[in-house]
Amino acid sequence: MTITREPTTDHRSITPRGTPAVEEFLSQPVDHMARLPWPFAEGHEAFRYSVNVDQARVPRRTLAGEWGRHVCDLGGAEYPTIMAERRAVLDADPSRVKVLPGMELACWDLLLYYLRDLALSYPDVLHLDEGVGGDPDAFHWRNDLLGTDQAFVLGNGSTLPCGPLEFLAREVPDDLLLVRERDGRLHFDAGAVTFAAAWSVSFDVGMDMYEIHGPVPRMNGSGMTARAEQFLRRVPADQVFRRVNWNVAASPTRKYDIALESLPAWGRDMAEAVQRGDAIENCQFRIELEHFIRLPMTGAVTFNIRTFMASLAEVREYPTYAAQLATILEELPEDLGTYKGFIDLIPDMVAFLRG
């Protein structure tokens, strides 16, 4: 069955609807620490990579607020700003979306999973109508926060303004990665990645997990990669899991896009901030909240990444957190600090956090 492409909206524009629910959502106070998934358990004084997964959709209280209630955290009042940066990246560099042959159906699977989850999580501002016109494959998506109004037929690419993976990437702040098994290993075979922390989706797509984690100290040799692969193989279809990773960004700004593709645009930020004398306070404590989902139609597994940031100045507003981060930075082994890219800044960061 063919349905009309209308109603539809330019997939680049962001024009929130002026509904009371939208106005309330976008009037939330901006507090980067309140939404930040603090990555260290109480009392922890050291960091090593681990398969630190737990159940998703379980809210976690922190000293500053709460995180983890939904699979997709839109970002509160900053959601349109985040999405404007994301869409600008996709407009300027279409290569940030990669889909290897055979992954097309998994992309539709991911799109439908997310839209359903979003409509349940934010029913006042996000809406998905199913079975439009009596066709079980016909859907109508409305995102009042961005002004999106799009009818589409599942599996029919001509009913979307772009591919299903890119369409989803233009609606959510998460970087989207899809993993499948081939040749006896799990491979990253599709993704829409605009906010990578100093890596490249174009370079990594098609790699298996051992190749991707090769540069990470202690991952492959310690058996961590093997355990992570086994975990992903066993993710059940009826449960969603998550883990938290962290870094201090190589750019002391709130730029989400610090991928290798855009290195010329941000590569001098730190050096220039050091020269100005405001680098350390503006260094961004960058948290990656990762979700793992086995998709219901194809069985493909997602590895999705939502990036949160708070400056070290904002972290220092919470002395318990500042002291813990300072202790962890002091103890961090040299190879991990070098890999994360901030080894030379550790003394200054520790001094600032303890100040």
Count of beta strands: 12
> In percent, how helical is the residue content?
25-40%
- Helix-strand pattern, N to C? HHEEEHEHEEEHEEHHHEHHHEEHHHH
The strand line-up of the biggest sheet is 1-10-11-12-8-9-4
Please state the structural category: alpha+beta
Kindly estimate the percentage of residues that lie in beta strands according to DSSP: 15-25%
The averaged pLDDT comes out at: 92
Termini gap: 66 Å
Instruction: Calculate Rg over CA atoms.
Output: 20 Å
Based on CA inertia axes, which overall geometry fits?
Answer: globular
Number of domains in the coordinates? 1
Q: Tally the helices: what do you get?
A: 15
Give the biggest sheet: 7 strands, antiparallel
The poorly predicted ranges are 1-7
Can you tell me about this structure?
The chain is an alpha+beta fold. The chain has one domain (32-99, 168-354). 33% of the residues lie in helices and 20% in strands. It has 15 helices and twelve strands. The chain has a seven-stranded antiparallel beta sheet with strand order 1-10-11-12-8-9-4. It is globular, with a radius of gyration of 20 Å. Mean pLDDT is 92; it is low at 1-7.
